[in-house]
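Ticket #4471: structure export looks truncated?
Reporter: QA, pipeline team
Priority: medium

Steps to reproduce: submit the single chain below to the structure queue and open the exported record.
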Amino acid sequence: MEIDQWRREYLRGGLNRGDLKDDPVHQFEQWLQEVVETDLSDPSCMSLASVDSEGQPSQRIVLLKGYDARGFAFYTNLKSHKARDIEQNPQVSLLFPWQSVERQVIVYGRAERLTREEAESYFHSRPRESQLAAWASHQSDAIESRDKLEERFEEMKARFGEGEVPLPEFWGGYRVVHQAVEFWQGRASRLHDRFIYRRQDDDSWQIERLSP
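Actual output as written to the record:
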């Protein structure tokens, strides 16, 4: 079968206005818990879209590491491609592609740097090898070989020995302060359910149904 003929119906359920919580974070929390209960692999994976100073968009998968009324948090090398984009243009979007349950969540907002204290707390909760890898990798820079990367990793192991691995100055995180959040539920005949929460001036939320 040709790729343009690949298709299936979405029949797992629907989404009605009466199903929705008043706050998008509470709605996200409910959906995330339901996804976790399905044993979906990597439910915290999200695609982060950013735009550079020349208007070129890019995307990559990152892991959600916290969420609350303030926004959605993730961590990264602060000299990476994504971080450079954010420093130039903090407007980003996140996509949670929960296709096995025929759902998507899109977050639109502004990325703000997390405090060093927040980054320090999370960094030291990571496995030691991940901490060492943060030191070894000059994320997004060209590198001559895999051997060179592994050599740097061994150098970091020797450098820090059995002692605490400090937080690198070039490593931290961002919180995406959500201004709009869309919830998408697949339906038969491509008549999908879509609802978007939009933040109002008083920080309340307006909810609208969108055409599929």
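Status: closed, not a bug. The export was complete when the record was re-opened. Leaving a note from the reviewer for reference: The helical segments are 24-37, 81-88, 116-123, 128-136, 146-160.
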